[in-house]
Amino acid sequence: MIKETNRKNIGLILTSSSWGGLEMNVIKLTKLLFAQGYNISFFLIKGSKVDDEISKTLIPVYYIAPHMKYFDIHGAFKFSMLLRKLSVKNLIAFDNRDLDFVFFVKLFNRKKINVIYQQHMQIGISKKDVIHTLRFSAINYWLTPLEFLKKEIERHTRFNPDKVKVVPLGTDIQKFTTNKYTKSEARDKLGLNKSSFIIGIIGRIDPKKGQLFLTQAIHKLLKLYPRIELLIIGETTFHDPLSEKYIREIKEYIRTHNLYDNIHIRGFTRDVNLFYDAIDLFALASENETYGMVTIESMLAGVPIIATNSAGTPELLNYGEFGHLYTPFNMDEFCKIVSEVIANFENTIVMANKGKLEAIKKYSQDVECARIQELIV
């Protein structure tokens, strides 16, 4: 049960101009907290994609100037005055690029701000130096979605481990656990073959996401399984030359090997149920996915999963209990597992059903919201 809020004031800061999983999760959480009756103040950059999405809601927005990544003391002072004016006692940050700014904001507020940092990316390298240690000292509670990330914080920082809370990022369980379409209906809408075995990948089309690898894998698997196909749903990053070059490489591979009947590329859609209801097997091909929301969505939808054995994905799949794991970009290993899945599909369905039950219990957005509310003063 989510507790009463007593109209507490919460500020959320996100100065990112990008649009991806981090930004989507922040907006989702903001809407949840707003729905619980908190006085929300959202601080962002005017004209960003986050601004576009938040402006569609009734959530109060305050525009702040883009700050320097380090030592923006003047901007931090102005922002601290705004927080005082709005009586904001709790400030939630999400992007590590905002943490230096938040440190000075808290300093100017005589450390009276309760700072909560929700981590979305891996730390990667050691950050035990004086500058990072000072910056992290502004954080009252560090939220991280996985145990492996908590261990990384302990290994790479001097932050007090007692202030690190493992709080998984949640999602709308009902949206994914209830089939919106039959498989036949979903495939009709997407223009797919109803009798083929379809592997699917959804998300940004980018070299790090592995869509070309999966295209090449389907080409190889066709020698054994003539009715195997790949559904790619997503778009390139706007004005990103690498991303645009990558999609051209994928299309050129399809053209060169005449894979038009086996590789299907569809644009971004908000109706993600259409994707999950259409496929037989979800594939994650990212080399290093910190916390794959699409993996969790697949679990909730009861879709069998094959995913890379790296970063946070093994923990999400309980190290192979809820889905199959393979070494990133290992073609032979990937194709071998797909062959085993097709040959023993009933066993794979059992794994998927176990994963669905775990995801329902663990990855509810209401659970995430309630855990965060416990830390608000």
- For the termini, the CA-CA separation is 18 Å
Structural class of the helix and strand makeup? alpha/beta
Helix and strand run: EHEHEHEHEHEHEHHEHEHEHEHEHEHHH
Going by CATH, what is the homologous superfamily of the largest domain? Glycogen Phosphorylase B
Describe this structure in words.
By secondary structure, the protein is an alpha/beta fold. The chain folds into 2 domains: 9-167, Glycogen Phosphorylase B (Rossmann fold, 3-Layer(aba) Sandwich); 173-362, Glycogen Phosphorylase B (Rossmann fold, 3-Layer(aba) Sandwich). 43% of the residues lie in helices and 15% in strands. It is built from 16 helices and 13 strands. The protein has helices at 21-35, 49-54, 73-85, 99-108, 130-136, 147-156, 173-177, 183-190, 211-221, 241-256, 272-278, 293-301, 313-316, 331-343, 345-362, 365-373, and strands spanning 9-13, 39-44, 61-63, 90-93, 114-118, 141-144, 164-166, 197-202, 228-233, 263-266, 281-284, 305-308, 324-326. A 7-stranded parallel β-sheet has the order 3-2-1-4-5-6-7, with helices on both faces. α3 (73-85) packs across α4. It starts with 8 loop residues before the first strand and ends with a helix. 39% of the residues are buried. The model is unreliable at 1-6 (pLDDT under 50).
Supply the key terms:
single chain; 377 residues; alpha/beta; Rossmann fold; 2 domains; six-stranded parallel β-sheet; 13 strands; 15% strand; elongated; disordered N terminus
Question: How is the secondary structure organized here?
Answer:
Layout: E1 9-13, H1 21-35, E2 39-44, H2 49-54, E3 61-63, H3 73-85, E4 90-93, H4 99-108, E5 114-118, H5 130-136, E6 141-144, H6 147-156, E7 164-166, H7 173-177, H8 183-190, E8 197-202, H9 211-221, E9 228-233, H10 241-256, E10 263-266, H11 272-278, E11 281-284, H12 293-301, E12 305-308, H13 313-316, E13 324-326, H14 331-343, H15 345-362, H16 365-373
Parallel strand pairs: 1-2, 1-4, 2-3, 4-5, 5-6, 6-7, 8-9, 8-11, 9-10, 11-12, 12-13
Helix pairs in contact: 3-4, 8-11, 9-10, 9-14, 12-15
